[in-house]
Amino acid sequence: MLLNQLSSLFVFLLVTLSTALKSIVPPKTALIYDSKITNIEEYTKLLTYLKDELNLKLSTYEYNSEDLSIFKNGELNYQNLIIFPTKARNLGAKGSIKGLDLVEFFNKGGDVFAITSPQGVSESVRNFYNQLGIYPSPKNHELVDHFNGLEETDKLIKLSAENNLVLQNNIIESVEGIEFQGSSSLISNNPQIFPIVQASTTSYTKNSQGDDDSRPWTVGKEGYLTVGFQGLNNARSLWLGDISQLNDSKLGSFGENLLKWTFQFKNILKSIDVSHNHISGESYEDRQYKVKDEIEYKITLQEYDGQVWKPTSIDDLQFEIKLIDPYYRLNLSEISSSAFSTTYGVKFAIPDRHGVYTLQTIYKRPGYSFIEEAEVLSIRHLANDEYPRSWEITNSWVYLTSSIVVFTAWFAFVIIFIYIKDDKSNAKKNK
Amino acid sequence: MSSYELSQGTVNNIQLFLKGLILILIAGAAISSRLFSVIRFESIIHEFDPWFNFRATKYLVSHSYYEFLNWFDDRTWYPLGRVTGGTLYPGLMVTSGTIWHALRKIGLPIDIRNVSVLLAPAFSGVTAYFTYLFTKEIKDSSAGLLAAAFMGIAPGYISRSVAGSYDNEAIAITLLMAAFYFWIKASKEGSVFWASWAAVFYFYMVSAWGGYVFITNLIPLHVFVLILMGRYNKKLYAAYSTWYAIGTLASMQIPFVGFLPIRSNDHMAALGVFGLIQIVAFGDYIRSQVPTNKFKSVLAVSVVLIIALGILGLVGLTYAGLIAPWTGRFYSLWDTNYAKIHIPIIASVSEHQPTAWPAFFFDTQFLIWLFPAGVYLLFQDLSNEGVFVIVYSVLCSYFAGVMVRLMLTLTPIICASAAIAISKLFDVYLDFSEYLQSKVVVQETSSEKAKEEISVTTKSKNHTVFGLISKLTVISTFAFYLYLFVYHCTWVTSIAYSSPSVVLSSRLPDGSQNIIDDYREAYYWLRMNTPEDAKILSWWDYGYQIGGMADRTTLVDNNTWNNTHIATVGKALSSSEEVSYEILKEHDVDYILIIFGGVLGFSGDDLNKYLWMIRIAEGIWPEEVKEKDFFTANGEYRVDDQATDVMKNSLLYKLSYHRFVDLFGGKQATDRVRNQKITKEPDLNIVEEAYTTENWLVRIYKVKDLDNAGRDLIQSSKFEKESIAGVKRRVQKRPELDLRE
């Protein structure tokens, strides 16, 4: 018990230390903008928020700056990227940052927050999002809604919770009071996409340059205004269709929540411990599991809220024991909780089939980091002396009795046979 | 006079000494001719199955026997695993394990590898000795010595017992001959002692090789034939009952055999004959009690009844599922096309193919035509032992004609029969005693008796001038044949049977030997460069070698116990990339290993085995994999630009020809095995090349991870290729997307 407390204290210390380290060495963040479209002076609130509230080490770059390179020696040079709309085709000095580079950046664990607008959709950003299954409307395509429009042109649209907020998204709480002006995007069925804000039924995208009879990019609810994406490596990316949501006049909880989610200050889950053992407490190493053994599986999760790691409150966590296909899929229930983590567990009997099993917990919910824990274990068969002995099975008593009877009868017969034979021959001799 | 005469005892001693010397020399010849492979190459385990035996032996010597018996092997048949301890014949491993321990006890710590490599040659010497004893029981010791000499160097046996050929057969043939020798001895003398020895060796044989079924059926058949011939006697009864009771109970102690002796049709003959001999014994007893004429009618009726009942019972029990029907391998013994149609996995093994006729001459040379002569001679005096040899030779000649590997069980009887024929010949033609005798007699002419003798001998001398010449002619002819035989055996052994097949060798244009060591190169790469728990997918042929040499987990191996799992691998290799990738991920495959002979001209590569993979996969998924899709409209098997789309899109095709065109640097790329021109680089997305050996014989690919962004790998690698090539799309088109779910 004391040991347990000590070890949790130790873990707690480690966690505090790592949190502390995080604030000591803030993640490097690059903001890329195009001064032809954006006046960076209008975003002082955003910059302060990123630096002071989120503690990021922020540097801002003109899109074609010589100093801008997202990789250094093949490793990420920045943890986070914020890309404002740009007129240029590619980013970086001489267009060195292409869509493929952004995909690689993302695959290596970098978070990308990009905004496109009808004034500027760079090919890099577009290609990157197309690969994720998000198709932002191209340049000059602008979202119009003649029913909810606020200005003459109907391009500034008032969002409402029932019309626009995607239900069950856990990234933002509300869109009340948000006035949106910008692009809309199509999204594919990729399950890693988390739509956040949807276009309203009465909206469509209008191409200000093209002919009017062309098919609009999005019509009604097929368009999305804000879309999140999470890679299998838990790197996050967010596409936003309106740059003005981040400027000094509009930046509020909507924009802040999006930034917090993208840069991993929100909805972070992780497993800190996975263990399993015999119900008796013996570990797998002490005594290998065999078929039908009773074992206990435990997993400990915690959640990060931007400041500290705290216990989770999940009730739909499931565990699988599989051999190609799952044999069992069991619900994990909370068995204990500490100040900074929650432990879930289940007790079960291993299937009556030997083999190399995978014990896995997969938890993938929209908006949360993915949890995938798998361990490959071999479950052996019964050894030759682990089956019940014959006399322990009542059915066998019939056979045991009959064989013993035959043995004794045979033995008796032989004795008697010899004895009688001797008697007869003696009798003959006597005659 | 007394100076010339030797006492009987001295003669016996000299004979014994000579016999011993000859047998030792035969053993020496047998062992040394099997060492070609070690001298040519190195002390290495050969081929495929021996690698498993070797791995199991290593496990045995590093663990206890209890652990070995209950060994659950999680490194094969991923993710099913194999209960190896209960599904192998432990005789071989236990034998070499015992030798290894014994040598350590006497202070000779020898590497287990060397024990394994040299086990087969060592046992071949013992085989020669048992062949001697066996043939001696049939005829006499001179035939025995000849048989031993033949057995020692006959290529038919050497093919499975060269140094490094660490297979079950290596000791099984020895045990086969031992069991037969003791059986003959037991049935001759009616001795419970010898019958028990036969049972002990039968048990050892059961523990060593699945071919024990041959003994299980041959001995009952011998007894059955003898009963039919009316040669039943109490000796036979004692011998058979003892052998069957002890042998069957003992054989059931091997976990892999278990209850088969009472549940499988393969063993029913032995059980049936055991029952029959009880009835015959009973009948015999009755006969001694009742008059003969009555007995005959009783006998006729009861025999018909019993046989009818027996067959009905067998059919009924088999139908009810209480007795296992015959196995596929057994059916393919009777119908050579059976396996091809019903069980492609059995037909795909080259050693299960019917034997080509030249193979008989190749493997036994002049013994093959002496063999019928020997059998004919045995027919002449038709002793009980002779019947055994006749039954053995008839049965085995058929089996050897059906399946190449059964040549091995035929060889001992060929040697014995041929030895009987030659020895009979030598008995007559090598007998110069009358000439020697006459000289002795001529030297001392005193008494009248002697004079008479002179007249007799001179007569016979005159008579045998031609006799002598004919004798000498025959003897020298056969001496020449024997010389040729030895020459042939040595040549065959050195040329055909001494290649380890793990290491290939070829001749360079200048005549020097070139060693192709790609297999070991690849396996060693796997061993050193992949994580310890990496799962390797390959065709099952290479499973044992990967397990033994690379020490990595495999999906399927040469044990072939689960046809569905093998079909899964076949499907993964013969399907398109999308389908394959799902299978690969489902089975956690990390690497794919294939054999490609197109650069070297090695014809035993995976593309040539491809049709078997497709057939086996088609057996399980007839809707998804179709053999005919791989043939062109003209019914040709092509891999060049005229190959079918299914062929070109299949994973194995892509793996084989990935970067093949580049290798030729602009020149025409030609596959040297199939002699076809490859023009286009296949589009390979789901794997990346990890390693290709020096001669491109083995190619290893790493299976890519799932795409981080949730794309399919074909889309992602297309994007990558286009981006690197700089393909630009100025006009952005609206994507056609499915309705969002």
Question: Gist?
Answer:
The complex is a heterodimer of chains A (431) and B (741). Chain A is an alpha+beta fold and 431 residues long. Chain A is 23% helix and 30% strand.
Description:
The complex is a heterodimer of chains A (431) and B (741). In chain A, strand 3 (71-72) and strand 4 (75-76) form a beta hairpin. With 431 residues, chain A is of the alpha+beta class. Chain A folds into three domains: 2-262, Rossmann fold, CATH 3.40.50; 268-379, Coagulation Factor XIII, Chain A, domain 1 (Distorted Sandwich); 391-430. Chain A has helices at residues 2-24, 44-53, 99-107, 123-132, 161-164, 253-262, 397-430; strands at 28-33, 57-62, 71-72, 75-76, 80-83, 111-115, 134-136, 141-145, 157-158, 179-180, 185-187, 193-198, 203-207, 224-230, 236-240, 268-278, 294-304, 309-310, 318-323, 325-331, 333-337, 342-349, 355-363, 371-379. Chain B is mainly α and 741 residues long. Chain B has a domain at 517-723: Rossmann fold (3-Layer(aba) Sandwich). Chain B is 62% helix and 5% strand. Chain B contains 34 helices and nine strands. In chain B, strand 3, helix 27 and strand 4 (553-554) form a beta-alpha-beta unit. In chain B, helix 10 runs parallel beside helix 12 (234-251) and helix 21 (384-402) crosses helix 22. The radius of gyration of chain B is 32 Å and the shape is globular. Residues 440-446 and 453-459 of chain B have low confidence and may be disordered. At the A-B interface, helix 3, helix 4 and strand 23 of A face helix 34 of B. Chain A: InterPro entries: DDOST_48_kDa_subunit, OST48_MD, OST48_N. Chain A: Pathway: Protein modification; protein glycosylation. Chain A: Residues 29-251 form the OST48 N-terminal domain. Chain A: It is a single-pass type I membrane protein. Chain A: Component of the oligosaccharyltransferase (OST) complex.
